[in-house]
Design brief:
The complex is a heterodimer. By secondary structure, chain A is mostly helical. Chain A has 13 helices and four strands. In chain A, the strands form two sheets. Chain A has a two-stranded antiparallel sheet. In chain A, strands 2-3 form a two-stranded antiparallel sheet. In chain A, strand 2 and strand 3 form a beta hairpin. Chain B contains 14 helices and two strands; from the N terminus they run H-H-H-H-H-E-H-E-H-H-H-H-H-H-H-H. The N and C termini of chain B lie far apart (60 Å). In chain B, 51% of the residues are buried.
Chain lengths: 355, 311
């Protein structure tokens, strides 16, 4: 038996392999549920029911999809360059911090202006938060995975400081919370769901256009494939990194503004809920494709909502969803092997000497 | 003086989980595999060790279970990256998410529970015969838990393995140039599996130190980024297990300094002091990337899958 590289499979075959991998993960998870003494069909069924079963649940699923989708788009741009932005969580918090600063201090501005100021501030702040490690990476080759990750903790501690001390609402009777935004700092709703969903759809289009129809987008994929090729082609790698990371961090920062203004109504330490990490899975699962990531994010949001539903219904901890999500990625990663390599079984024929 | 001794002694304690994880990751990277799943494997070890300890009341069994749990996490990673040649960064990150999910799932019903007294007593500080008599150093290093003594032992044994034996030479060769190692008859995949699993087991031990000795009450997110700091410490230690000791204790000290400083009512808010370990990690990353020397480099094949037909 030996392993050989194979020529690329066609698109349909690749899709089939990926779907088989997802199915494999679900079967594996099902066996696990069986061991726990649960009927996997019932549990999976009620997870779907918990994610989509009523308008209320559907709305919650969409509310979960929005930050996940936008963050996935943000980190995807960085991943395309093989720049490991694991710091989306921090960029979200810093974006929310910047937006909240304007929401709390300039609440008498007219609503549209205030919202735009908040969004721009969040994007700039999120962008800067990623620009710091990006600058060091481009200048000294500093490890960006760990740098961006450490900045997550710094951002979370900073927001904790604001919530528990500096910006603590004196009218909250000692309860550690920041004052709620006024009405004109809250983003409007359309069809009962805050307009983050429209922003998400617009950003899918924008990121798609950016990656496949602009010069920078092209440079990103060349650098991602091979830095040497990029250098020979005369691409200014340093400039491309900085530009791209500002955009990547900016999108994640915008997520912070949307969460603060559309969901929690103010800045808080549990604003993100680990979306920055789940987005890594969704971005990768979608093959770094901005359109596919929309679908994947929706399915993952459904899983997550379904996860909290089965916690109340069956006392199965909601982290089951998290395990299932990582299992799916494990299986899909494993399936890449089938796409790229083939296993050649060799039987010794008469007279043939083994190579 | 006694205050300095008590601070340094606490530093050794706080640094021990980092030390286990860092040394484990050094070996994984030495065979060419960057495992970003450290945080996840630590959590798997922490929760498994706690549960086994809680249910059996056996301190040794708890530690063995924790090491096995960490190794199990590493096995997933090794199978994917070595056999199936997946992307090491993404696989490691997924392992971290998986480990966090596993710990939260399994530990869900254990939050707030406390370990039996015999385990706490077993791992309580016990003076090491003779060595504890050394003035100053004895008070810091040899009036510790047996688990801490075990970490000294581990570092010494693995250091000798790495630098003084044939196996150490082979494993470094696998990380530097897998094709050459393969050509000289070394089982590349075998070495990779073994040391990735060893790394996982050590991370599991690091997690178990947290849940059995350091904070013997189960709580969610018990590792709080220590696995990530350990990944950074590998760079700080320049892939040398002895230097990892210095790094681990330094960061252990940063971890507890905020709590200790509270007594002195300094004007810096506690939340800002809490950022210190993370900011210091960033500082280390930057400094190490600025002064890159010849001999202190990462193993040459780090992060790349080895495929015999692709040279």
């Amino acid at each position: 038996m030996r392993i050989a590289k194979r020529s690329e499979l066609t698109g349909n075959r690749i899709l089939l392999v990926r779907l088989a991998a997802v199915a494999g993960a679900l079967v594996f998870g099902g066996i696990f549920l069986l061991i726990l003494g649960q009927n996997p069909f019932v549990i999976y069924g009620s997870m779907i029911n918990g994610g989509l079963g009523s308008f209320f649940r559907f709305r919650e699923t969409i509310n979960t999809t929005i930050p996940l989708l936008l963050t996935s788009l943000g980190v995807m741009i960085a991943f395309k360059m093989k720049f490991w932005n694991i710091g989306a969580e921090g960029q979200i918090y810093m974006g929310a911090f910047a937006a909240s600063y304007f929401a709390l201090n300039f609440s008498d501005l007219p609503k549209p202006i205030l919202l735009i100021v908040m969004a721009v501030a969040a994007m700039v702040m999120g962008g800067i938060w990623l620009l710091i490690p990006a600058w060091f990476k481009s200048k000294f080759g500093t490890n960006e995975t760990l740098f961006t990750l450490m900045l997550n903790y710094v951002a979370i501690k900073w927001v904790t400081y604001l919530q528990y001390s500096l910006w603590k609402d004196p009218n909250a009777m000692g309860f550690p919370k920041i004052a709620s935004f006024t009405e004109n700092a809250l983003i409007p709703k359309l069809f009962g769901i805050h307009i983050g969903w429209i922003i998400s759809l617009i950003f899918i289009y924008l990121v798609y256009m950016f990656l496949s129809h602009t010069k920078t987008g092209y440079e990103i994929s060349v650098i991602g494939e091979s830095e040497n090729t990029a250098r020979y082609a005369g691409i200014d790698i340093k400039k491309a990194i900085l530009k791209t990371m500002f955009i990547s961090g900016g999108i994640c920062g915008l997520v912070g503004m949307i969460q603060a203004s559309g969901i929690s109504g103010t800045l808080s330490v549990d604003l993100s809920g680990g979306v920055g990490f789940t987005a890594i899975i969704t971005a990768w699962l979608s093959g770094l494709n901005p359109i596919v990531v929309g679908i994947v994010s929706f399915l993952f949001a459904m899983l997550q909502q379904g996860g909290s539903y089965i916690q109340t219904a069956y006392q199965i901890p909601s982290s089951a969803a998290e395990i299932l999500q990582s299992l799916i990625l494990f299986f899909v990663l494993a399936s890449e092997f089938v796409i790229r390599y083939k296993v050649v079984l060799k039987f010794k024929a008469k007279g043939e000497v083994e190579a | 003086m006694s205050m300095i001794i008590s601070f340094l002694s606490a530093t050794v304690q706080a640094g021990t989980p980092l030390l286990f994880a860092t040394v484990g990751e050094i070996f994984s990277q030495k065979v060419g595999n960057l495992n970003l799943g450290l945080e996840g494997m630590m959590m798997m070890g922490a929760v498994t060790g706690f549960i086994v300890g809680y249910n059996t009341g056996n301190p040794i069994l708890a530690v063995i279970a924790a090491a096995l749990a960490g190794a199990a996490g590493a096995l997933i990673y090794a199978f994917l990256t070595v056999t199936l040649k997946t992307n090491q960064e993404v696989t490691g990150l997924t392992l971290t998410i998986f480990g966090a999910g596993y710990a939260s799932f399994v530990g869900n019903s254990m939050v707030g529970l406390k370990l039996a007294d015999n385990i706490t007593a077993f791992y309580a500080k016990t003076p090491f015969p003779l060595f504890s008599q050394i003035p100053f150093l004895g008070d810091i290093f040899f009036k510790q838990s047996v688990f801490v003594y075990f970490s000294y032992f581990t570092v010494i044994v693995l250091g000798i393995l790495l630098y003084k034996t044939k196996y150490g030479l082979n494993l470094r060769m696998v990380g530097e140039n897998p094709a050459a190692a393969d050509a000289s008859g070394i089982n590349v995949a075998g070495y990779k599996y073994f040391y990735i699993l060893l790394g996982g087991a050590l991370s599991g031990l690091g997690g178990a130190f947290l849940s059995l000795v350091y904070i013997p009450v189960w709580q969610e997110n018990i590792t709080a980024g220590k696995g990530w700091i350990a990944v950074a410490l590998v760079i700080f230690a320049t892939w040398n297990p002895y230097r990892a000791v210095v790094g681990a204790y330094f960061f252990g000290g940063l971890d507890i300094i905020g709590f200790r400083l509270q007594k002195f009512s300094i004007p810096i808010p506690i939340y800002i002091i809490d950022m210190l370990p993370y900011l210091a990690t960033i500082a280390v990353l930057i400094l190490m990337s600025i002064k890159r020397s010849r001999e202190n480099k990462a193993p040459a094949s780090l992060g790349r899958a080895y495929f015999r037909e692709e040279r």
